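Same chain as my last thread, 103 residues:
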Amino acid sequence: MSNVLGDLSKVPGAKLIHGAVSEQTICALEDVMHATAGDGGASVNMSAERRWFKDEGKWGSIIAQAGGFHSVLPDMRFVIYQDGGFIAPHADGVRFHEALQKP
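reply #2:
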């Protein structure tokens, strides 16, 4: 698995944290990814498959702690790109955090 990222310094609020979690944690999260059904990549603005899952706190707490956040939204997704895959520039809709009662 490889990551190709642009210049995150140009993205307000974006963080890339190397080494924040153990290799064992990454392998366990990959197991979740492989067990999660995908949407087949059917979208006009992307060539990638999205796999959505609702986190019950385990992964969100690891991500929040690693990133220095109070919490993260429980709606999570993996985005899987094949060679040449893309997501066109866009703005996501607002997601609501049910436990905190705010976006």
